[in-house]
Design brief:
The structure is a single chain. This protein is 41% helix and 12% strand. The chain has 32 helices and 20 strands. The strands form five sheets. Strands 1, 2, 3, 4, 5, 6, 7, 8 and 9 form a nine-stranded parallel beta sheet that branches.
Amino acid sequence: MSTGSAAPRVAPARGTSIDDLLARVRAGHRPDVDETASLLHADLDALLPVAAALRDEGLERAGRPGVITYSRKVFVPLTTLCRDRCHYCIFVDTPGQLALLRKPAYMTPEQVLTVVRQGQALGCKEALLTLGDRPEERWPEARAWLDERGFSSTIDYVAHIARLITSETGMLVHANPGVLHPDELAALRPVSPSMGMMLETTSRRLYEEPGQVHFGSPDKDPALRLKVIDDAGTAGVPFTTGILVGIGETIRDRAESLVALRESAERHGHVQEVIVQNFRAKPRTAMQGAPDADMREYLAAVAVARLVLGPDMRVQVPPNLSDPRELGLLIAAGIDDWGGVSPLTADHVNPERPWPQIDDLAASTAAHGYTLRERLTAHPEFVNAAETWIDPALHAPVRALADAAGLAADVIPRGRRGAESSDLTDGSARDETSPRPTATERDRERSAANRVAADPGVRRLAERAASDPLSLDDADWTRLLHATGDELDDLTAVADDARRYTVGGPITLVRNRNLTSSGFRRAGRAAPGEFGLDDAAAIATDAVDLGATEICIQGALPGDENPGGYLDLVRAVKSAAPGLHVHAYRPLDVRDLADRGGLGLGGALAAMHAAGVDTVPGTGVKVLSERVRGLVAPGDLEIDAWIETITAAHLTGFRSTSVLFYGHVETAEERVAHLRRLREIQDRTRGFAEFVPIPLPGGDVPLVSGRAPVDEHRAMVAVSRLLLSGSIAHVQIPWTRVGRETAAVLLRSGGDDLGGTLFDGRVLPDTGIEQGLELPVAAAERLARSLMRPFRLRTTDYRVTDAVAPSIVTSGGTRFPLPSDRSRTPDGAHS
């Protein structure tokens, strides 16, 4: 879609060299397929500057120079059934797999609203509906589910859900249901201001040849997909499409695909963005052994997409499918949009690739000279021309969320909370906005505004908790913590659904070992459990040799040891193993360094940063209650001091874990107060990576007399998942305390992480606090497989390891840094 007028440009005479061709493209020439293929073979140092210049020209013409956009979204996997059989897809399940996973054929409206309302509370304005193509045409189970509920087709149900989401929450829906017929496009247009479907490739070979990625998938016929894109233009639908790089297509296939998308966009003006997506191999697929898309070829495809599509097209890349250190290269290649990024839900199509933190994405964007701005599902050009592109039924909801430039306004979506009707008629959505309140104000407002009469059923109470945890009072949460029998089964099932539809299916593990710093002796080892600086270096080197990516160091130094030993210990580890993530020092340890070392709290945290500490454990507290501390752990840090320290650590830039030790003298109300306090800290700092509910050793005091220990743990994990949902994403199961068999049960109660391998190591294994308790990676994989869930190794802090990055050096001498370790897996910090 053209976003402005420019003076006519006269292209220079056609030449034969790449430089001549690039000069002509820069002057307005539209390359044909042959020329596009030549560009895809060109050196990056020739392509990237021209692509970046075209992007900058387009942003100037659009009235937002230097702005790269994204959409804050919630990901709704409406059904994972599909009639296609793509060889790279991990999103799709069969009915048999759904039965084993205890998943429904389709998400129910209640499950959808549970997820969407949490996204609404986090400021999301887009609900991305993604699903398989026409599952009812392959699976009788899908047809039966739709028939029982009165829906003629999956698309009919998509329309119902889209209408419901906007009516109830004010959020806008981007529908991504695959191949659509013209009547279906017309049916979705009044409820979805934008839609999308990847072209992927025009290659007929990949579709027609046995063994290729699209063979046996009727909806991947390139001609059919191009027709859908054209039909969307005829219907006046702002449309997202794109290509997939690295699935077996040739360079010429890529060229033909880009030119075909340009031609459709020019015919109708409806293509709002083109995604250039890099293939990432998935386990348990036919292509699991295929290499990921080559980075050089990917960058060339991104840059050439800009050259072919011109300055006015939005060119998008998914930021989670690239290493954070590659984002600058993608900006240099001419992109101007990062697509949808979720603060709540996983990328269910690429579950092994976590979304970047939005603040981190903004920082990366700014580091390369651009400003990150939030947009809506429909891009500003289409929002500003709503009379042409947006159905009248959606004008009011779109206006409610848009600013004067057509980007996203700084408001929280508002809908008809608690309304029974799901109909959204012309203009019926409330045009209601408000300035974004503080987290505390928002929580108070939502708790009061959304209160409904308490339902006597635990399932209904749990479902309300999943949808809006802050609408429950302490008595409600106490009731859930006391659930037994069938009610406990209902509670854990709802909690596990909340886990599935937010963080997704993977079970994660970090490869690590412990080092108990209370055993440090500057003079060296003189007794079991003790170690010196040289020992620490040897332990770190051994851990890396065993495959560890993290060393967890915690424990107060003896009073006769210089507190500078905290820092020296970290320096010794980092010197011996620079790439090893150091997860070190509880708030109690930090205060000891601050007080005895004379540094003060801020000085101690700054010194830890300088020494090489990466993240901190949020341990050293049982329950955030002075009554409990006095009875159980009077030597622990005072509660106010613990909160002050962990908050300061977060605000200094450290992320941490969080914990609750239960099963001793604490009451149910004190557990609830603890979880609420963690939410309050998280609202302020966003520093907690995960929460670990830990049974206190030797406690074993159930809230419900006679309730089996496993049921006590199930209730605690489920309530933790629900009360912290939308705040702290990951719930870790402490397998060292409950055992592997019970851990498997708790992973079906809302848990998603197993903590660490806890390697003993071959050097002084007695210096690790949980010596003798190892969880080999193979054992964790078997556990995940028994639950029919994917397994992922993770780093400590949701980031890649700090490997030294090699470079692409082009023939022109330009150096483009590339990471040596291109893997990126989801994680949480080990406690």
